[in-house]
Amino acid sequence: MTARSAGFAGAIACAAALSSALAAETKPDFAITTKIVEIGVTLDPKIKADPALAADCLAEGKRWAAARRAEAEKERKQDPEMFRKAWAYDRKYETRSVVDGRYVSIIRGDYQYMGGAHPNTSSNTILWDRSLGKRISIRPFFTETADSGPTLKAMRQAVIASLKEEKKARGAEGLDTDAIEGIEPKLLKIGPVALAPSTEEGKSSGLNFYYDPYAVGSYAEGAYVAFVPWEMLKPYLTPEGAKIFGGARPKDDVEATR
């Protein structure tokens, strides 16, 4: 073998190894593949490093996958023509922040394509307490979280201001203002929320609220993330809330949520 052919063979081997490595990285942690559905559930490495959290997310993901499969099988019986190509579903669990070494904010992103004009995407959030080994809400960080109470009213006002600013940045100001104004000052209605990362290690810079396409704008506008700085919520914080918030929102978080 000449030096050139050996080099070429080596390059091919390296490319193959890289391809295999990439394939391994993107392989779902759970999958269902049939003639009518292709479903994947993927956990990021940080989640998989925590056995309790990984088990919780994977169990939920498997239930979701089973429900989507059953849904597709039911639809196929009614209209087989809809399944000339398998329907595709994908769910990813990704860590957004880890605060005080205890509170893990996860973004759960769903993708589905069922042969329509375009795929649909949606997101939700999970707040995991490592000390308790379970999911929690943001309630422990605030002195009160009553519907239409002072805390939720302040959150809503800040969310709306953030969304209007983002719409202006996208050249979409003035569009779908009714949808924005329709956001309710209720913890279960205001939108999926996560602890935003911070420039100060171990702290959260505030709250990120996630809105799917169509939720506060047209599909063409895409998804929105409203950021509420912790300073705006300072009057409503419990001692635990005061402990975990601090610093500023990192630039990479802004970029990651656009």
Q: Compute the separation of the termini in Å.
A: 51 Å
- Classify the oligomer: single chain
Strand order of the largest sheet: 1-2-3-4-5-6
Summed up, the helix count is 8
The biggest sheet amounts to: 6 strands, mixed
Order of helices and strands: HEEHHEEEEHHEEEHHH
What structural class do the secondary elements suggest? alpha+beta
Strand element count: 9
Residue share in helix: 25-40%
From the alpha carbons, calculate the radius of gyration and give it in angstroms. 22 Å
Average of pLDDT: 89
Strand content: 15-25%
- Spans of at least 5 consecutive residues with low confidence: 1-24
- The global form is globular
Description:
- This protein has 258 residues and is α+β, with helices and mostly antiparallel strands.
- A six-stranded mixed beta sheet has the order 1-2-3-4-5-6.
- Strand 1 and strand 2 form a beta hairpin.
- The chain is built from eight helices and nine strands.
